[in-house]
What does this fold into?
Amino acid sequence: MRALNYSIEQAMASAWRGRGSSLMPIITIALALFVLGGFLLLMLNVQRMVAAWEGTAELSVYLQDQATPADRAAIEQAIDASPIVAGHQYVSKTDAKQRFAVLFPDLSSLTPADEVSPFPASIDVQFRPGASADAAVETLAASLQRLSGVSDTRFDRRWIARLVRAADVIGALGLVLAVVLSTAGALTVASVVRLALVARRDEVEIMRLVGAPLAFIRGPFITEGILHGGAGSVLALALLAGSLALARARYGAAIVAALGVAPIWFLPLEFCGILIAGGMAVGGLGGIVAAWRGGLRSVDSVAVAD
It folds into this structure.
Protein backbone atom coordinates (compact mmCIF):
# COMPACT_ATOMS: atom_id res chain seq x y z
CA MET A 1 0.00 0.00 0.00
CA ARG A 2 2.88 2.37 0.75
CA ALA A 3 4.38 1.64 -2.64
CA LEU A 4 1.06 2.40 -4.34
CA ASN A 5 0.60 5.69 -2.51
CA TYR A 6 4.18 6.68 -3.24
CA SER A 7 3.77 5.79 -6.92
CA ILE A 8 0.59 7.84 -7.27
CA GLU A 9 2.06 10.88 -5.53
CA GLN A 10 5.26 10.79 -7.57
CA ALA A 11 3.42 10.12 -10.84
CA MET A 12 1.06 13.07 -10.34
CA ALA A 13 3.97 15.34 -9.44
CA SER A 14 5.95 14.21 -12.47
CA ALA A 15 2.97 14.58 -14.81
CA TRP A 16 2.38 18.12 -13.52
CA ARG A 17 6.04 19.08 -13.95
CA GLY A 18 6.03 17.80 -17.51
CA ARG A 19 2.45 18.82 -18.33
CA GLY A 20 3.51 20.29 -21.65
CA SER A 21 5.04 17.06 -22.92
CA SER A 22 2.19 15.04 -21.36
CA LEU A 23 -0.34 16.51 -23.78
CA MET A 24 0.96 14.50 -26.72
CA PRO A 25 0.35 10.99 -25.29
CA ILE A 26 -3.00 12.09 -23.81
CA ILE A 27 -4.17 13.44 -27.17
CA THR A 28 -2.89 10.36 -29.03
CA ILE A 29 -4.72 7.96 -26.71
CA ALA A 30 -7.83 10.16 -26.78
CA LEU A 31 -7.81 10.05 -30.59
CA ALA A 32 -7.47 6.26 -30.61
CA LEU A 33 -10.31 5.76 -28.14
CA PHE A 34 -12.46 8.40 -29.86
CA VAL A 35 -12.19 6.42 -33.10
CA LEU A 36 -12.92 3.14 -31.32
CA GLY A 37 -15.80 4.67 -29.34
CA GLY A 38 -17.25 6.20 -32.49
CA PHE A 39 -17.34 2.85 -34.23
CA LEU A 40 -18.82 1.24 -31.12
CA LEU A 41 -21.53 3.91 -31.15
CA LEU A 42 -22.22 3.13 -34.79
CA MET A 43 -22.40 -0.61 -34.21
CA LEU A 44 -24.64 -0.41 -31.13
CA ASN A 45 -27.06 2.02 -32.73
CA VAL A 46 -27.23 0.03 -35.96
CA GLN A 47 -28.02 -3.10 -33.94
CA ARG A 48 -30.68 -1.19 -32.05
CA MET A 49 -32.27 0.09 -35.25
CA VAL A 50 -32.15 -3.35 -36.84
CA ALA A 51 -33.87 -4.89 -33.81
CA ALA A 52 -36.62 -2.27 -34.05
CA TRP A 53 -37.05 -2.69 -37.79
CA GLU A 54 -37.02 -6.48 -37.74
CA GLY A 55 -40.09 -6.46 -35.53
CA THR A 56 -41.98 -4.44 -38.15
CA ALA A 57 -40.39 -5.81 -41.34
CA GLU A 58 -42.78 -5.71 -44.29
CA LEU A 59 -42.93 -7.07 -47.80
CA SER A 60 -43.88 -4.42 -50.36
CA VAL A 61 -45.47 -5.69 -53.56
CA TYR A 62 -45.33 -2.98 -56.25
CA LEU A 63 -48.02 -3.07 -58.91
CA GLN A 64 -47.70 -2.23 -62.57
CA ASP A 65 -49.55 0.88 -63.75
CA GLN A 66 -51.58 -1.26 -66.13
CA ALA A 67 -52.56 -3.79 -63.43
CA THR A 68 -56.32 -4.51 -63.50
CA PRO A 69 -58.66 -4.91 -60.51
CA ALA A 70 -58.67 -8.63 -61.27
CA ASP A 71 -54.86 -8.72 -61.04
CA ARG A 72 -54.98 -6.93 -57.70
CA ALA A 73 -57.62 -9.31 -56.36
CA ALA A 74 -55.52 -12.34 -57.39
CA ILE A 75 -52.45 -10.88 -55.69
CA GLU A 76 -54.33 -10.15 -52.47
CA GLN A 77 -55.82 -13.65 -52.51
CA ALA A 78 -52.33 -15.17 -52.82
CA ILE A 79 -51.14 -13.01 -49.93
CA ASP A 80 -54.03 -13.95 -47.65
CA ALA A 81 -53.51 -17.65 -48.41
CA SER A 82 -50.02 -17.63 -46.84
CA PRO A 83 -49.99 -18.82 -43.20
CA ILE A 84 -47.19 -16.36 -42.26
CA VAL A 85 -49.19 -13.27 -43.26
CA ALA A 86 -50.92 -11.26 -40.52
CA GLY A 87 -52.50 -8.72 -42.87
CA HIS A 88 -51.95 -6.39 -45.78
CA GLN A 89 -52.70 -2.81 -46.81
CA TYR A 90 -53.24 -1.40 -50.28
CA VAL A 91 -51.37 1.84 -50.99
CA SER A 92 -52.59 3.74 -54.04
CA LYS A 93 -50.40 5.96 -56.19
CA THR A 94 -51.86 9.03 -54.48
CA ASP A 95 -51.25 7.56 -51.01
CA ALA A 96 -47.65 6.74 -51.98
CA LYS A 97 -47.11 10.36 -53.04
CA GLN A 98 -48.54 11.67 -49.76
CA ARG A 99 -46.39 9.24 -47.77
CA PHE A 100 -43.28 10.48 -49.58
CA ALA A 101 -44.20 14.11 -48.77
CA VAL A 102 -44.56 13.26 -45.07
CA LEU A 103 -41.32 11.28 -44.82
CA PHE A 104 -39.24 13.68 -46.92
CA PRO A 105 -40.78 17.18 -46.61
CA ASP A 106 -37.65 18.83 -48.02
CA LEU A 107 -38.12 16.88 -51.26
CA SER A 108 -41.88 17.28 -51.55
CA SER A 109 -41.39 20.10 -54.08
CA LEU A 110 -40.12 17.50 -56.55
CA THR A 111 -43.67 16.11 -56.81
CA PRO A 112 -46.11 19.06 -57.12
CA ALA A 113 -49.67 18.44 -56.00
CA ASP A 114 -51.12 19.07 -59.47
CA GLU A 115 -48.95 16.41 -61.15
CA VAL A 116 -49.67 12.72 -61.51
CA SER A 117 -47.98 10.63 -58.83
CA PRO A 118 -44.72 9.09 -60.10
CA PHE A 119 -44.89 6.41 -57.42
CA PRO A 120 -46.40 2.98 -58.14
CA ALA A 121 -49.30 1.54 -56.19
CA SER A 122 -48.30 -1.20 -53.80
CA ILE A 123 -49.51 -3.70 -51.25
CA ASP A 124 -47.72 -3.71 -47.89
CA VAL A 125 -47.70 -7.16 -46.29
CA GLN A 126 -47.36 -7.57 -42.52
CA PHE A 127 -46.15 -10.88 -41.07
CA ARG A 128 -46.91 -12.79 -37.92
CA PRO A 129 -44.40 -12.42 -35.05
CA GLY A 130 -41.14 -14.21 -35.85
CA ALA A 131 -42.09 -14.91 -39.45
CA SER A 132 -40.10 -12.02 -40.95
CA ALA A 133 -36.90 -14.03 -40.47
CA ASP A 134 -38.35 -17.18 -42.02
CA ALA A 135 -37.32 -18.49 -45.43
CA ALA A 136 -41.04 -18.75 -46.24
CA VAL A 137 -41.04 -14.99 -46.76
CA GLU A 138 -38.59 -15.34 -49.62
CA THR A 139 -40.72 -18.11 -51.10
CA LEU A 140 -43.82 -15.91 -50.87
CA ALA A 141 -42.00 -12.98 -52.46
CA ALA A 142 -40.81 -15.17 -55.34
CA SER A 143 -44.32 -16.54 -55.96
CA LEU A 144 -45.86 -13.07 -55.93
CA GLN A 145 -43.21 -11.79 -58.34
CA ARG A 146 -44.52 -14.23 -60.97
CA LEU A 147 -48.13 -13.03 -60.77
CA SER A 148 -49.66 -10.81 -63.43
CA GLY A 149 -49.66 -7.11 -62.52
CA VAL A 150 -46.62 -7.28 -60.17
CA SER A 151 -43.64 -5.14 -61.19
CA ASP A 152 -41.36 -5.80 -58.20
CA THR A 153 -41.20 -6.99 -54.59
CA ARG A 154 -39.09 -5.47 -51.83
CA PHE A 155 -38.54 -7.10 -48.47
CA ASP A 156 -37.24 -4.89 -45.64
CA ARG A 157 -35.08 -7.66 -44.24
CA ARG A 158 -32.95 -7.80 -47.37
CA TRP A 159 -31.60 -4.28 -47.04
CA ILE A 160 -31.46 -4.64 -43.25
CA ALA A 161 -29.09 -7.59 -43.75
CA ARG A 162 -26.98 -5.49 -46.13
CA LEU A 163 -26.87 -2.72 -43.54
CA VAL A 164 -25.68 -5.15 -40.87
CA ARG A 165 -22.93 -6.51 -43.15
CA ALA A 166 -21.79 -2.99 -44.02
CA ALA A 167 -21.71 -2.03 -40.34
CA ASP A 168 -19.65 -5.15 -39.54
CA VAL A 169 -17.08 -4.22 -42.19
CA ILE A 170 -16.90 -0.64 -40.97
CA GLY A 171 -16.56 -1.86 -37.37
CA ALA A 172 -13.67 -4.15 -38.32
CA LEU A 173 -11.87 -1.30 -40.07
CA GLY A 174 -12.45 0.91 -37.05
CA LEU A 175 -10.99 -1.74 -34.75
CA VAL A 176 -7.86 -2.01 -36.89
CA LEU A 177 -7.45 1.78 -36.94
CA ALA A 178 -7.98 1.94 -33.17
CA VAL A 179 -5.30 -0.73 -32.61
CA VAL A 180 -2.82 1.23 -34.75
CA LEU A 181 -3.55 4.47 -32.91
CA SER A 182 -3.39 2.72 -29.52
CA THR A 183 0.03 1.35 -30.40
CA ALA A 184 1.14 4.85 -31.33
CA GLY A 185 -0.27 6.10 -28.03
CA ALA A 186 1.62 3.48 -26.03
CA LEU A 187 4.88 4.38 -27.77
CA THR A 188 4.26 8.08 -27.16
CA VAL A 189 3.63 7.39 -23.48
CA ALA A 190 6.83 5.36 -23.34
CA SER A 191 8.81 8.25 -24.80
CA VAL A 192 7.37 10.80 -22.38
CA VAL A 193 7.84 8.55 -19.36
CA ARG A 194 11.40 7.82 -20.39
CA LEU A 195 12.10 11.55 -20.47
CA ALA A 196 10.73 11.79 -16.93
CA LEU A 197 12.91 8.85 -15.91
CA VAL A 198 16.04 10.49 -17.32
CA ALA A 199 15.15 13.78 -15.59
CA ARG A 200 15.05 11.93 -12.27
CA ARG A 201 18.12 9.78 -12.93
CA ASP A 202 20.00 10.98 -9.85
CA GLU A 203 17.06 10.17 -7.58
CA VAL A 204 16.59 6.76 -9.19
CA GLU A 205 20.28 5.97 -8.86
CA ILE A 206 20.30 6.85 -5.16
CA MET A 207 17.23 4.69 -4.55
CA ARG A 208 18.91 1.76 -6.26
CA LEU A 209 22.12 2.21 -4.27
CA VAL A 210 20.26 2.18 -0.94
CA GLY A 211 18.40 -0.97 -1.99
CA ALA A 212 14.91 0.45 -2.59
CA PRO A 213 12.44 -2.17 -3.89
CA LEU A 214 11.75 -2.15 -7.63
CA ALA A 215 8.12 -1.25 -6.88
CA PHE A 216 9.29 2.12 -5.53
CA ILE A 217 11.63 2.68 -8.48
CA ARG A 218 9.49 1.58 -11.41
CA GLY A 219 6.06 2.13 -9.86
CA PRO A 220 5.87 5.92 -10.32
CA PHE A 221 6.74 5.70 -14.01
CA ILE A 222 4.22 2.95 -14.72
CA THR A 223 1.60 4.88 -12.75
CA GLU A 224 2.36 8.00 -14.75
CA GLY A 225 1.65 6.08 -17.93
CA ILE A 226 -1.64 4.87 -16.45
CA LEU A 227 -2.56 8.46 -15.58
CA HIS A 228 -1.88 9.53 -19.17
CA GLY A 229 -4.07 6.73 -20.46
CA GLY A 230 -6.87 7.53 -18.02
CA ALA A 231 -6.83 11.22 -18.93
CA GLY A 232 -6.87 10.34 -22.63
CA SER A 233 -9.83 7.99 -22.24
CA VAL A 234 -11.84 10.56 -20.25
CA LEU A 235 -11.08 13.15 -22.93
CA ALA A 236 -12.22 10.71 -25.63
CA LEU A 237 -15.54 10.08 -23.84
CA ALA A 238 -16.06 13.83 -23.43
CA LEU A 239 -15.47 14.35 -27.16
CA LEU A 240 -17.86 11.51 -28.00
CA ALA A 241 -20.57 12.94 -25.74
CA GLY A 242 -20.13 16.41 -27.23
CA SER A 243 -20.22 15.10 -30.80
CA LEU A 244 -23.32 13.04 -30.04
CA ALA A 245 -25.11 16.01 -28.46
CA LEU A 246 -24.34 18.11 -31.54
CA ALA A 247 -25.57 15.35 -33.88
CA ARG A 248 -28.80 14.97 -31.89
CA ALA A 249 -29.45 18.70 -31.94
CA ARG A 250 -28.95 18.98 -35.69
CA TYR A 251 -30.24 15.66 -37.04
CA GLY A 252 -32.31 14.09 -34.24
CA ALA A 253 -35.70 15.09 -35.69
CA ALA A 254 -34.69 14.01 -39.19
CA ILE A 255 -33.60 10.59 -37.90
CA VAL A 256 -36.93 10.04 -36.18
CA ALA A 257 -38.89 11.12 -39.26
CA ALA A 258 -36.87 9.08 -41.75
CA LEU A 259 -36.04 5.95 -39.75
CA GLY A 260 -38.83 5.79 -37.21
CA VAL A 261 -36.47 5.29 -34.28
CA ALA A 262 -35.24 7.48 -31.44
CA PRO A 263 -32.08 9.57 -31.98
CA ILE A 264 -28.64 8.07 -31.48
CA TRP A 265 -27.97 6.72 -28.00
CA PHE A 266 -24.69 7.07 -26.12
CA LEU A 267 -22.52 4.16 -25.03
CA PRO A 268 -23.75 2.15 -22.01
CA LEU A 269 -21.86 2.58 -18.75
CA GLU A 270 -20.11 -0.77 -19.10
CA PHE A 271 -18.68 0.24 -22.46
CA CYS A 272 -17.52 3.56 -21.00
CA GLY A 273 -15.77 1.63 -18.24
CA ILE A 274 -14.14 -0.67 -20.80
CA LEU A 275 -12.84 2.32 -22.77
CA ILE A 276 -11.41 3.94 -19.65
CA ALA A 277 -9.80 0.66 -18.57
CA GLY A 278 -8.42 0.18 -22.09
CA GLY A 279 -6.90 3.65 -22.14
CA MET A 280 -5.28 3.08 -18.76
CA ALA A 281 -3.96 -0.28 -19.96
CA VAL A 282 -2.43 1.34 -23.06
CA GLY A 283 -0.82 4.04 -20.94
CA GLY A 284 0.38 1.50 -18.38
CA LEU A 285 1.94 -0.58 -21.15
CA GLY A 286 3.84 2.46 -22.34
CA GLY A 287 5.01 3.09 -18.77
CA ILE A 288 6.17 -0.51 -18.43
CA VAL A 289 8.12 -0.30 -21.68
CA ALA A 290 9.86 2.87 -20.47
CA ALA A 291 10.47 1.84 -16.87
CA TRP A 292 11.54 -1.75 -17.48
CA ARG A 293 15.11 -2.83 -17.68
CA GLY A 294 15.89 -0.93 -20.87
CA GLY A 295 14.79 2.34 -19.28
CA LEU A 296 16.88 1.76 -16.17
CA ARG A 297 19.88 0.92 -18.27
CA SER A 298 19.50 4.21 -20.11
CA VAL A 299 19.54 5.96 -16.73
CA ASP A 300 22.72 4.08 -15.79
CA SER A 301 24.42 5.02 -19.03
CA VAL A 302 23.50 8.68 -18.60
CA ALA A 303 24.71 8.63 -15.01
CA VAL A 304 28.02 7.09 -16.07
CA ALA A 305 28.43 9.65 -18.80
CA ASP A 306 27.89 12.43 -16.31
Summary: Residues 12 and 138 are 63 Å apart (CA to CA). Strands lie at 58-63, 85-91, 122-127, 150-155.
